[in-house]
Automatic annotation (TrEMBL), chain A:
Pfam family, one: BPD_transp_2
Family: Belongs to the binding-protein-dependent transport system permease family. LivHM subfamily.
Taxonomic lineage: Archaea, Methanobacteriati, Methanobacteriota, Stenosarchaea group, Halobacteria
Keyword Oxidoreductase belongs to the record: no
Keyword vocabulary terms for this entry: Amino-acid transport, Cell membrane, Membrane, Transmembrane, Transmembrane helix, Transport
Compartments, record wording: Cell membrane
Protein name, entry field: Branched-chain amino acid ABC transporter permease
The keyword Disulfide bond is assigned to this record: no
Entry's Gene Ontology cellular component terms: plasma membrane
Transmembrane spans: 7-31, 51-79, 91-110, 150-167, 228-259, 271-288
GO biological process, one term: amino acid transport
A GO molecular-function descriptor: transmembrane transporter activity
TrEMBL record, chain B:
Predominant cellular place of this UniProt entry's protein: membrane
Keywords: Cell membrane, Membrane, Transmembrane, Transmembrane helix
PANTHER family attached to this UniProt entry: HIGH-AFFINITY BRANCHED-CHAIN AMINO ACID TRANSPORT PROTEIN BRAE, HIGH-AFFINITY BRANCHED-CHAIN AMINO ACID TRANSPORT SYSTEM PERMEASE
Localization per Swiss-Prot or TrEMBL: Cell membrane
GO MF term set: branched-chain amino acid transmembrane transporter activity
Transmembrane spans: 6-29, 36-56, 76-99, 111-129, 149-171, 207-228, 240-268, 289-306
A GO cellular component annotation in the UniProt record: plasma membrane
InterPro entries to which the protein is assigned, alphabetical: ABC_transp_permease, LivM-like
Membrane topology term: Multi-pass membrane protein
Source organism superkingdom: Archaea
Protein name according to UniProt: Branched-chain amino acid ABC transporter permease
Amino acid sequence: MALELQLVVNGIVFGSIILLASIGLSLLYGIGDFANFAHGEFLTLGAFITFAGYVTFGLPIYVAGLMAFLFVGALGVLIDRILMTRHRDSTPIILLILTIGLALFLRAVIRLQWGDNQRTLGMPLERGTELLQGSVGWIDYGIRITSTDIAIVFLALVLATGTHLFLTRTRMGIAMRAMSDNKSLAKVAGIDTDTVMTVTWALSGALAGTGGMLLAMQTGVLFPRMGFNIVLVVFAAVILGGIGSPYGAMIGAYIIGIAQEVSVMIPGISAEYRYAFAFLIMIAVLLYKPQGLAGGRW
Amino acid sequence: MALSGPAAFLVSMLTLGGIYAILAIGLNIQWGQTGLFNISVAAFWGIGAYTAALVSKVGGETAFSWGLPFLWVDVVGFPIPIPVAVILAAIVSGVVAVLIGIPTLRLRTDYLAIASLGLAETIRLIFLNEGWLTGGGTGSTVSNPLVDLQYTNLTLLVITLVVLGIVYWLAETGVQSPWGRALEAIRDDEEVAQALGKNTFSLKMQAFVIGSMIMGVAGALTALRLNYITPFEFIPEFTFYVWIAVIVGGSGSNRGAIIGAGFLMVLLEGPRFLSDFLPGLSGSVAADLRFLLIGLVLMLVVTYRPQGFLGDKQLMTEDNT
Amino acid sequence: MSDEPLLAVDGIEKHFGGITAVDGVEFEIEEGTIVGLIGPNGAGKTTTFKMLGGFLPPDAGEIRYRGTDLQDIMQPSRAEKSYFTGSAALVAGLGGLALASQSTPSTAIQAGAAAVGAGAGLGAYRGQEILKTRHFGHKYSRPFQVSRAGMMRTFQITRELEGLTVFENLLLSPKNQPGENVLKTWMRFNSVTETEAANHERAEEVLDLLDLEHLRDEYAGNLSGGQRKLLELGRVLMADPDLILLDEPVAGVNPTLSKTLLARIRDLRDQGYTFCIVEHDMDVIMNLSERIIVMHQGQKLMEGTPEEVQGNQRVIDAYLGG
C-alpha cells in the first residue's frame, strides 16, 4: 500500500504542474481555435527564467517565479502582436505550422542562451515529512511529502483560482468566454476580439511560465527539451478535459497526472513509458468522447 | 574512400538530399495529396532504418563469399540483396502504419497532428528502451556491404538516386490517376467524397501506408549511409526538416518536394559554412542556428507564401476542418 | 419484392440531446417519380435528408432502399471486418510476445504467450463489436455504401471540390473505377486506361448537357453559385444513380438557368431516374413534383399531390407560423 498512496501523491504534484500549462493551452485552443505546439517551449522558458533569477541573480525562488510569470506572459503578447495578428483569419493548419515553427525557434533560442547541457536549480534538498505512517497486517503504508510539493500544489491552486476569478468576474474574462463560445457572435456583440486574443496569449504564456517554474522546482534539473517532453501530457489533459474548457483542463490535468504516476505499477511496462500512457488515454478520448469530460461546456 | 575533398562532400550532400527528397515525397502523398497532417515522419524513418539494421545483423558477415559484392546482405545464413532489405523496411513501416492508422485516421486534422506527435515520441521511447531489439541508447550497427567497396559513397548515391527515381515515378503516376483524384477529393471535402461513394477511410489508409512505406525506404537508405544508427538520429524534431521541404517546395507537388529537399540541404549546411567563416562559432552553436533558421523559415513561408514554390494555394488557405 | 417501393421510410426518429429533430416520419418513393419534401425552417427536412443519405444514423425506425435496410447496406464488408480483427490480434499477440520475452528466454513459452495474446485480441475485438451492435444499438454511418448502392445526394450549400477542375469533379464520380486501385494504376492495367477514356467521353457529354463546356478546365472554386449547382447535378449524373436526393437545387440560380435545370430534371425523370427534392421555392416544387410531403416540427404533416397540398389549411397554418 505504501507505494500506491505515494504514487497518488506524486500524481497530484505532477498534475498541479501540468495544471497551469493545461489551462493556458486550453484557453488558447478554445478562443483562437488552434493547437499551440510552442506551449512546451513556454514551459521550458519559464523554467530557465526561474533558473536565471534564482541561480544567476541569486533572487529568492518566488521572485524568480514571478519573473517567469511576467516574462513569458510578455512574450505571449509579443508573439501575438508580431506574428499572430497577421493570421487572425488563417486556417487552423496554417496556425498549427506557425506554432511548430515558433516552437523550433524558441527552443533554438533557449539552446543558444543556456546551452545544451543539463542545469540544476540547486534548491536545498529535503527529506520531507512522513505522513500517515502505520501498518495494517503485513502491509505498511505511509507517504512522504516535502514542503516543495506542498508549495507546488498550493501555488497551482492559487493561480487556478485566480484564473477562475478573472474569467468570471472581469469584463475581459467574460469577453474571452464569449469568444470561445461563438467568435462571430462575440464580434457582432462589439467585443474587441483582437485585444481578447492578445490577452489570451498573455495569460496562456504567464500560466505556462509559472508552470515551468513549478516543473523546475519539482525536478530540479533543467534542459532545453524539458517542456517539449511533457507538452504531450499537457495536450492529453486538455483533450481529456474538453478543448476550450479551462475547468475541464483542471480535472484533466489531475486525472492524467495521477494516472501517469500510477501506471508505473502496471507489470511488464517500464516506467520510461509513462508519457506513452498519457498518449494512449488521449487517443481513447479522441476516439470515444472527442468533446472531452466537459462536453463543450465551460 | 577514393573520393576526397569537395567531390566527397558533394556526393555526401547529394545522398542526404536524395534521402530527404524521398521522405518529402512520402509526406507529400499523406499531406499534400490527402490532407493527413502527419508529424511522425521521424518514427517511420526510424522504423525503416532499424529494420534494415536488424535484417543485416542476423547471420554472419559472409556475404562476399557469394561473390556478389554490393548487392547482398546476409540474413539468417541466407544472403538477402539490398533491394530486399529496403523492401522489408518498407513492409515493416507499412504494417506499423496500418496498426496506427486504424485509431488515428478517423481524427480531425489538428487531433491527428497531436496524436501523431505522441506516436513519434512513443516509438522513439521504444527505440531508446528496448535494448534487446534496438541496442538502446548506444545504438545498432549496420553490417553494410557497401563499406568494402571502392566507391562506397558513390554507390550509395547511385542507389539513392535510383530509389528516388522509382519513388517519384510511383508517386507521380499515383497522383495523376483516378486514385490521386479521389485522394484530392478527400483533402478538399471528405463528406463530399463519401457522398460520391468513395470509401474515404480505406483511401486515407492507403495514402498513409504508402507514404509511410516510402519513409521506411528512406530509413533503410539512412542505415546504409550511417552504418551505425542511434535513436537520436530519429528525434521528432527531424520530422520538421521534412515538413520544411514539403512546405517550401509546395504542398501537393512531388517536383516541389524534390526542390524543397534541395532548399533544406542549403538550410542545413548553411550554418556549417558560416562557422568556417566565423571562427568563434562552435559546432553546437551552428546546430542551434540550424533549428533557429528552420523555425524562422517555417513561420515566414506560411505567412508570406503558404503555397511554397510549386504548391496548391487552396490547400493551405481553405478551411477544411 | 416487386411491390416494394424504391425507397421506404418507416417511422424514423432523430434526437439531438433533448431536441427531437425528426419524430416518426414515414413515406415512400416510387421509382420514376419526383417527390418534393417541403416544410418551414426547422421542420426536420435536412436531418431527414442526412438520414436518407446515410450521413446520420436514425435513432429509431428503418429506411429501406429496394427492400433492404440501409443499416444492412452500410455493414462493413467481410474483408474490412477481417482486416480489423487481424490487426487487433496482431497487436495483442505482439504485446503478449513482448511481455513473455521480458520474463523468460523459452521460445515455446514466448510463442504460447503470443498465441494467447493474439487470441485475446481477436476475442476482445469481436466481443466489443458484438456488444456494440447488439446491445448498445450502435448504428453504422457509412454513406459511401449508400451512394454505391445507387442513392446519391447533393448538398444544400454547394460543396464543390475547389482544388479540382470542373472536368476532374465530374471524373471523380463514376463508380467502380479500376484506376482508384493504385496497384492497378502502377501495373498499367488496360482496364484503367479504358475506363478512364470512357469516363472522359461521358464527362464531355455531361458538360455538353449542362452547358458547362466553356468552364471545362476552370477550378470549381471559381464558379458562380448557379454553375456550382449545375456541376453538382452533373457530378451525380456521372455516377448514374437510381435515386437522386436534391437539396435546394435551384437556390441562388438565375431564372433562365433554373428553367434549364428543371427541364433537365424532368427529362431525366422520363428516362427512369427518381428524384426526391427539398426546395423552398414553392413554384418550383409545385410544378415539378408528382407528390409532396409536408413536414412540420419533425413530423409529417401531410402527403399528397401539389393541388391537395396547396389547398390544405394545416399546411398554410404551418407556414404562417401556426
